[in-house]
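Fill in residues.
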């Protein structure tokens, strides 16, 4: 680290002259205040699109050297000329920054930042401190700390996804809009033939907004899930599926029209490059027959080529009509023939005219008389969508069946895994209702359905019988040795049924009493137990008081007990309530070294917010002992050597800090376990 601490004055001076104004806006830039020996440095760690882990002229800011021997703080990078930075910008992906303090004289100082400046996405830590939760780190002397950004936030899912036929056999074209996050990288495409299953990854590292899936089976419905991936490899978690069924183009289908002893073979179909007009090289004009002779052709609106032997239409249409005309028929009964085997598998084909409607899949001939205009109609069935998902239950029973999901006039009941699926929904806006006996219902209103959609629900169990202690009203948090106190506990009914449970209160095995609570629905009852006389003590100590509800059938046992710690002052300790201090102060913790409960004494000259916190040797917040409004006076706070999760801390050096009305004081203690 010597090479870091003793950077050259020339290098940092050179950085001052060569650095140019920042041109590129970072994705985010976070100020951090480093205080040492009465000097404060504001540094910035940031990300910018296109930045590297080295020195970037447009986005990094070199750090000017301070006076020789004076306190200094900067971000360090490996660079021959610009190793010390006031602003260090990196790529938006997961990254680390090295923070260095130099020439600190060993005094306890702090590194602070604003929680409001920490982005919501990702995790930020300073040597193990979660910078999204805590805003200060305490340190001593020269240190090297690492700020780590772990991008754990997945990018947004792609939007505007659609799946369409290309009318090339076995192909579907997917289009979408990519997310706009700066760290977005590429798209992954998953495909399944089973709705609701993610399926297989078929295309990875897809750049752009379109992809044509090839080699598909005609007539099979495929379900696609498109997920975005960012620079850190995080994948969006969306489960929405978009379906498509590849449809073959309609080849040139022959149809034989017979009249007056003459036969014409005509052709109708689709082509990827065709229009509904005349297309050179695709359509085939019909040569006129002798005047007055029988004729048959397909008719289109065109000034030069209205009569076609082959009429090929735009392949993307899902509803196509070909107009078939017979002319100069002399009234003899004749026929139109085709082979149903020539028709593609998708869609409905009919041959229509006045008084005639023939299904061309089941029939192969139509009989007619005289001049006619007939219509060959092709129609794909309307697209419908499916809404599916799971309905969970908050109490996690092993069998999740029985939830009823209703959409419009359609409904489905969940299976044992909680799965439901409602099919056959046209594109539109729907209200979705979910019910299950014994659970609160749920609804989704005005849901737009224009694709296959996954919607999951969790219904909350309606607890019927639930009581518990709500607050221990007395004795107070601090009591005196040899004194007598009332014992009063408020119990509450959290359920839906009036109850009269037995209740109990115990104090560390030296006191126990029972009673009954009368609890109407949503009601409370203050139960007064027998008085408690504090035993004689010549040293400070603590007791734990526990209130218990004993309802025979309680559906929520998690709130059946309530405890608090009572601090007992030894004989001879008197309160100094009448004395008001003139200044803020924080006294040494007693005992120190600490082996049990620590008594922290402090003075507050005026009413206001008081906060007492405990930090470990690396500056990580361990516990918050006090955080609230207090009246002026000489005060005592108790720390039972537990962290924020109630777990006892390990042996070691700890700092405790008092903050009130701009006043701040920190002291050190040794914990021995």
């Amino acid at each position: 680290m010597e090479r870091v601490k003793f950077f050259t004055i020339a290098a940092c001076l050179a950085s001052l002259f060569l650095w140019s104004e920042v041109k590129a806006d970072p994705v985010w830039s976070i100020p951090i205040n480093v205080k040492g020996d009465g000097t404060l440095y504001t540094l910035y760690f940031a990300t910018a699109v296109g930045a590297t882990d080295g020195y970037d002229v447009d986005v990094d800011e070199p750090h000017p050297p301070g006076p020789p021997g004076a306190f200094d703080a900067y971000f360090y990078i490996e660079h021959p000329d610009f190793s010390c930075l006031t602003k260090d910008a990196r790529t938006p992906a997961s990254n680390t920054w090295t923070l260095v303090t130099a020439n600190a004289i060993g005094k306890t100082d702090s590194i602070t930042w604003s929680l409001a400046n920490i982005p919501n996405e990702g995790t930020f830590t300073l040597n193990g401190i979660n910078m999204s939760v805590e805003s200060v780190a305490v340190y001593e002397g020269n240190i090297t700390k690492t700020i780590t950004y772990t991008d754990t936030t997945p990018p947004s899912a792609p939007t505007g996804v659609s799946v369409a036929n290309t009318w090339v056999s076995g192909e579907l074209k997917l289009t979408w809009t990519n997310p706009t996050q700066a760290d977005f990288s590429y798209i992954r495409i998953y495909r399944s033939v089973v709705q609701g299953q993610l399926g297989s990854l078929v295309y990875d590292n897809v750049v752009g907004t379109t992809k044509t899936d090839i080699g598909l089976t005609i007539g099979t419905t495929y379900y696609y899930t498109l997920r975005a991936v960012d620079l850190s490899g995080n994948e969006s978690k969306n489960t929405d599926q978009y379906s498509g069924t590849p449809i073959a183009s309609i080849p040139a289908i022959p149809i034989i029209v017979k009249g007056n002893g003459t036969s014409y073979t005509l052709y109708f179909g689709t082509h990827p490059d065709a229009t509904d007009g005349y297309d050179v090289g695709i359509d085939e004009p019909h040569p006129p027959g002798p005047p007055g002779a029988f004729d048959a052709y397909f008719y289109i609106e065109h000034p030069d080529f209205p009569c076609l032997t082959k009429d090929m239409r735009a392949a993307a249409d899902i509803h196509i009509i070909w107009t078939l005309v017979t002319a100069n028929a002399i009234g003899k009964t004749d026929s139109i023939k085709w082979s149903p085997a020539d028709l593609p598998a998708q869609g409905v084909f009919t041959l229509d005219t006045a008084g005639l409607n023939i299904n061309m899949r089941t029939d192969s001939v139509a009989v007619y008389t005289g001049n006619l205009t007939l219509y060959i109609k092709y129609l794909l069935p309307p697209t419908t969508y499916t809404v599916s998902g799971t309905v969970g239950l908050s109490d996690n029973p092993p069998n999740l069946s029985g939830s009823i999901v209703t959409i419009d006039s359609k409904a489905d009941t969940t299976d044992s895994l909680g799965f439901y699926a409602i099919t056959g929904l046209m594109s539109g806006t729907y209200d979705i209702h979910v019910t299950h006996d014994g659970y609160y219902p749920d609804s989704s209103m005005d849901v737009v359905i224009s694709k296959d959609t996954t919607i999951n629900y969790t219904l909350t169990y309606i607890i019927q019988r639930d009581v518990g202690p709500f607050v221990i009203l007395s004795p107070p948090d601090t009591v005196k040795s040899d004194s007598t106190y009332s014992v009063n506990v408020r119990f509450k009914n959290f359920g839906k049924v009036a109850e009269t449970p037995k209740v109990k209160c115990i104090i560390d095995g030296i006191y126990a009493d029972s009673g009954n609570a009368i609890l109407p629905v949503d009601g409370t009852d203050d139960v007064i137990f027998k008085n408690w006389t504090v035993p004689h003590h010549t040293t400070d100590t603590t007791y734990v008081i526990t209130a218990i509800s004993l309802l025979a059938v309680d559906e929520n046992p998690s709130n059946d007990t309530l405890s608090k710690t009572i601090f007992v002052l030894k004989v001879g300790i008197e309160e100094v309530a009448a004395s008001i201090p003139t200044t803020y102060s924080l006294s040494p913790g007693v005992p120190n070294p600490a082996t049990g409960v620590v008594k922290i004494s402090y003075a507050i000259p005026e009413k206001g917010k008081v906060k007492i916190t405990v930090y470990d040797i690396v500056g990580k917040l361990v516990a918050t002992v006090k955080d609230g409004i207090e009246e002026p006076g000489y005060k005592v706070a108790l720390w039972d050597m537990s962290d924020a999760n109630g777990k006892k801390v390990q042996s070691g050096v700890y700092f405790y800090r008092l903050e009130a009305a701009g006043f701040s004081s920190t002291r050190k203690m040794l914990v021995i376990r």
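Residues 1-25, 573-578 have pLDDT under 50 and may be disordered.
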